[in-house]
Design a protein that fits this description.
Layout (H helix, E strand, L loop, with lengths): L2 H21 L5 H8 L3 H7 L3 H24 L5 H16 L5 H8 L8 H20 L9 H18 L3 H15 L2
Length: 182
C-alpha cells in the first residue's frame, strides 16, 4: 500500500473508532469519511462495506481481549472473585462503543455473522476462564461458553441501552456468577 493510502486507511479507522464510540455501529459512513478528510470513494475503496470497516476497528480490540484475559487469569482470590472480575472485564470489552454489546451478543454463536471472527476471539477468551474454573471444580455441570457470553452480554446490553453505571451492573454479574458456581 502506498504511504498516502496507508495514512488514509489509518485515519479512517481512527475516526470510525471515535464515531462508533459516540454514535454506535450504525453511524453514517459518509460522516466518517468527512471527519477523516477523505471522500466517500476513498472510504469505500478501503472498506467496501460497513462490516469490513468494523472489522478493522475491532482488530486492536482483539489484541486487548487477549491481554485482558491473560490478566484476568492471574487474578488472585476466590473462584467467585475471578469470575466476577472476568465478567466486569468482559462487559468493558464489549461496551467500548454504543450499541456494541447488543451487536456482539446477538452475533455470538452465529456462523453467518460478519463479525464471527471477533465473536470467536471473545468466546475463546471466555472459554479460557470457564475451563480454568472447570478444572478447579468450581463450575456447575453443563455450563457452556456461549451461554455465559450471552448472559453477560445481555447484562451489558441492558447497561448500554439504559446507561447504567458500573456500580449498577456488578450486582447483576454477581447473580450470574453465583448461578454458575457450585
Amino acid at each position: 500500500m502506498r504511504a498516502d493510502a496507508q495514512r488514509n486507511y489509518d485515519r479512517i479507522v481512527e475516526v470510525a473508532r471515535e464515531v462508533f464510540r459516540e454514535q454506535g455501529y450504525d453511524a453514517s459512513l459518509d460522516e466518517i469519511a468527512k471527519r477523516a478528510g477523505v471522500g466517500p470513494g476513498t472510504l469505500y475503496r478501503h472498506f467496501p462495506n460497513r462490516e469490513t470497516l468494523l472489522d478493522a476497528v475491532m482488530q486492536s480490540w482483539v489484541l486487548r481481549v487477549t491481554e485482558t484475559t491473560d490478566k484476568a487469569l492471574t487474578h488472585e482470590g476466590s473462584d467467585r472473585d475471578l469470575l466476577i472480575n472476568w465478567f466486569e472485564e468482559y462487559v468493558g470489552l464489549i461496551s467500548q462503543h454504543r450499541g456494541g454489546p447488543a451487536k456482539i451478543t446477538s452475533a455470538m454463536g452465529n456462523p453467518d455473522s460478519p463479525i464471527r471472527t471477533k465473536c470467536g476471539v471473545l468466546a475463546d477468551a471466555n472459554d479460557r476462564v470457564i475451563e480454568r474454573l472447570r478444572a478447579d471444580g468450581a463450575l456447575r455441570d453443563g455450563v457452556e461458553t456461549i451461554q455465559v457470553c450471552r448472559l453477560v452480554g445481555g447484562i451489558a446490553t441492558v447497561a448500554d441501552q439504559s446507561e447504567l453505571d458500573v456500580a449498577a451492573v456488578r450486582p447483576m454479574l454477581e447473580v450470574v456468577a453465583d448461578g454458575l458456581l457450585r
